[in-house]
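Good day; I would like, with your permission, to put a structural problem before you. What I wish to show you is a protein chain and, alongside it, a tokenised description of its three-dimensional fold. Thank you for your consideration; the sequence and its tokens are set out here:
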Amino acid sequence: MRIKATVEYDGTAYGGWQLQKNAPSIQGELERVLMELCGRRIAVTAAGRTDAGVHALAMPVHFDLESSIPPEKLPFVFNRNLPPDIRMISAEQKEGFHARFDAKGKTYRYAVCNRPHASAMERNRSMHFPYKLELEPMQEAAKFIEGRHDFAAFAASGAQTKTTVRTVKEVKVEKCGDMFYITVTGDGFLYNMVRIIAGTLLSVGNGRMTPEQVRLAVESGNREDAGFTAEPQGLTLLEVYYD
């Protein structure tokens, strides 16, 4: 039976979602549990691939399983065998479901600790940015990122993709105490795209760039016209959307 499951994880200790030889991965831990359960390797496919240090509150995955265990009991089985920084929070049988190809959009949040000294509590879940930030210019610049554009300027070099055109439905910048939150929703994202958006908006908030320069970066498609790539630990996948 095809299983659709939702996984939550703190990516601090992992080399990213994808299975790899030289570092532990989220996919590797899930497939290890399936190996112990079924005695053979069963591939687990996710809605996307998060990088080293990146987190997820709700990452949809799918895998095919021959087992008498009811799907709704699978989270209990997995969570007894997974490390404490990975949790399966739900599972159901859903024939024909594909976690990646059926996805219609995603929401990511980037968290920034904006104070002179870093946070002990948020060190693995936010980027420390000790320089002054102004909220309004960041919000103004965010509007230039919304819409359907060629986001070549916001993609890491060497990224392999058929097209760099994406639709960003909303970019929201909020401040809560010493924390800034940049929330981005779109139909899909290029490699490091959200982290580059975050770094660009931080550059605007700090006065290194103007909102108008962000508009020009979107139009030029030149990576050098956008801001820096923000650190991975501030990024969390919040939600993946399906029909």
Remarks:
- The chain has a mean pLDDT of 96.
- The beta strands are 2-9, 45-46, 55-64, 86-93, 105-113, 127-128, 147-150, 165-176, 179-186, 235-241.
- The radius of gyration is 19 Å.
- Residues 104 and 242 are 5 Å apart (CA to CA).
